[in-house]
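User: Some background: our group keeps a shared notebook of sequences we're curious about, and every so often someone picks one and asks for a predicted structure to add to the entry. Today it's my turn. The entry only has the sequence so far, pasted here. Could you supply the structure so I can complete it?
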Amino acid sequence: MRFLFITLFPEQIEQAVSHSIIKRAADRGLLEINCINPRDFTSDKHRTVDDVPFGGGTGMVLKPEPMVAAIRKAKEQLPAAKVIAMCPGGKTLKQKHAEEYAQKGQDIILLCGHYEGFDERIFSFVDDKISIGDYVLTGGELPALILLDAVSRFIPGVLGKMESAANDSFSTGFLEYPQYTRPVDFEGMTVPEILRNGNHSLIKRWRRKESLKATYLLRPDLLPAEIIAAIEGDVPQNMSKDEKKFYAELRMEISEILGDDK
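Assistant: Of course. Here's the predicted structure to add to the notebook entry:
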């Protein structure tokens, strides 16, 4: 899969992708990452890419001429690519978006903003607008790199095991359960016995409970209403005996945690 960054600071992208998993994936030909600098499409000696906004106001706005020229050059290299502008006004990046981009396998052109943002006319040449959260950064390079990283994890071969991506927080819709490795005892903190007894049925049950517990306590907005209701005691009558027991245990454990915090 190919990623082409339109950026005023290509060295920032090149430095970031020259390490770890992304670099290994690129070395193996699973990813191809390149940059285009809009300054290369300017004609004045200062290589100007921004100007003051019409109507007044603070800051500078990216001009359409060099940005659109850069997009057109990028489309020459990747004709079928999706053009994504990184900007605060875009839809918030979710795990499902990253997975969808990877599954489609469509090349991606990432447009990195700066200053006060893009001249609105630039968006006529953009397929999608993406934000990474409700805050503003100094440039679009870091958000674009986050999108690259999130998408790349779902490309077969980039991670050691695809299950690593499939079981991550947000891939299941809930937060991930706690993970442990050796040693069993670290400064008095021990790995839960249930993870060491080899009973995979009990381990699976424990992980599900811990995942729901973490999600309920930290990100309840991710939980369906029926699961929240079951956790809080409104258990459907048609639920199995085992499920009722499961939610009763979960409810008690959550109550103990909340009680400790009071």
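Suggested note for the entry: The radius of gyration is 24 Å. The chain has a mean pLDDT of 93.
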